[in-house]
Amino acid sequence: MVGLVRSPSTGRVGVPFSARFHSARPGRNPGGRLVGGLRMSPAPDLGHRPVMLAEIVELFRTVPPGVLFDGTLGGAGHSRAVLGAHPGLRLVGLDRDPDAVAAATVALAGFGERATVLRARFSEAGPALDASGATRISGALLDLGVSSWQLDRAERGFGYRHDGPLDMRMDPTSGPSAADLVATLPVGELARLLADYGDERFADRVARAIVAARPVTTTGRLAEVVRDAIPAATRRRGGHPARRTFQALRIAVNDELGQLPGTIDELIGRLAPGGRIAVISYHSGEDRIVKDRLRRAATGDCRCPPGLPCVCGAQPSLRLLGRSARRPTDTEIASNRRAESARLRAAERLPTERLPTESQP
User: Fold this and answer.
1) If we measure between CA atoms, which residue out of 252, 259, 260, 283 comes closest to residue 189?
2) If we measure between CA atoms, which residue out of 112, 115, 19 comes closest to residue 68?
3) In terms of Cα–Cα distance, which of 107, 140, 142 is closest to 121?
4) Contacts of 361 by beta carbon, 8 Å cutoff, 6+ apart
5) Torsion of CA 257, 260, 261, 263, to 10 degrees
6) Torsion over CA of 97, 102, 108 and 114, rounded to 10 degrees?
7) CB 226 within 8 A of CB 140
8) Nearest to 250, CA basis, from 173, 163, 160, 187
9) CA 247 vs CA 159, 194, 208, 351: distances in Å
10) Phi, psi of 237 (to 5 degrees)
11) 3-state class of 212 per DSSP?
């Protein structure tokens, strides 16, 4: 049984879930469903369509047997498909959202002890893998951003299409909410947040409008304030005018960019030779971080002038799988508009004696 995972930075304990469930007992987990004689707690039907699923399955098809780490498990769509295609892998999956943990636990029940699910941030990858006895891993997957079911549930406060409390916390039990940020940030700091995390052209105007409208405590009210702050000509194109503001607040509330560089480095360091890492991002800031960390590992962080032989002793550890980020197919985008901004980057761990060459997987 995998033990509890304690964050070295916060002391918070992650709650383990796995396919090794307790036997059903009368009166326990009322409403839970039975699978193979074991009672599962009720889990929400997330209804989330994993982005670039075929590409992810293909990327991990040739990795050596071992552990697949999924740091953003969600409803386990990606991991379930990879485990089904690769019987030599077992899963250690994390998610900080309790609804996702419950849903993933049920979704992966058929894999038995091949699947272990933990409630934790992806930045807690090291402690989680150590607790699971996984010093080395064969694959690492991060699907960044927000899930469809989070956007569509008004009470979670992620989306602007349904009015609800302005929350946006992926772990709704800890940390400041989006309403807290909107209520307390000075106008200059709020404007910088909108520009840096949302690429908002009118960040100053939107920030001033939000501060003037305080208190702003619901998603509907925030969407109205942002809409009215955007010039009318701009509102008529480029999707909902509040989209970038909501994105920026969500990234800030969950510290998504702050956790990412160290997590990628940790996972690269744990990859076994031939193991692969794949990251799907949806925001330019995320993609820049992913590109930077993978290229640093693929060059050994070489500091020599471009075009000249390396004389600094850099030792590459990865081979990039593709010269640029992959995009979803037109067919996938047509059937799932939320896939449109996805970018997939991947790399493979090198044996120490090999030199890197960029190639398609």
Assistant:
1) 252
2) 115
3) 142
4) 58, 59, 62, 276, 321, 322, 346, 348
5) 160
6) 80
7) no
8) 160
9) 9, 9, 18, 39
10) -145, 165
11) helix
Angle at 112 between CA 109 and CA 115, to 5 degrees: 80
C-alpha span between 59 and 11 (Å, rounded): 35
Report the candidate in 214, 278, 332, 257 with the shortest Cα–Cα distance to residue 60: 278
The rounded distance, in Å, linking the Cα atoms of 169 and 252 is: 10
What are the 10-residue block averages of pLDDT along the chain, 361 residues in total? Answer: 35 39 31 30 56 97 97 95 97 94 95 96 95 95 84 87 93 93 97 95 97 97 96 82 94 94 97 98 94 95 78 86 95 91 97 50 43
98: left (phi over 0), alpha (psi -120 to 50) or beta: alpha
Q: What are 268's two structure tokens? A: 């690269």
Do residues 123 and 263 touch, judged by C-beta distance below 8 A? yes
Tokens of 248: 């920026």
SS3 326: strand
Report the amino acid identity of residue 107.
A
CA–CA gap between residue 263 and residue 96 (Å, rounded): 15
Q: Which residue has the tokens 């089904």?
A: 84
Copy the structure tokens of residue 64: 């050596």
C-alpha 104/C-alpha 98 separation (Å) is 10
Q: Which two tokens stand for residue 212?
A: 């003037």
Nearest CA among 23, 69, 25, 76 for reference residue 48: 76
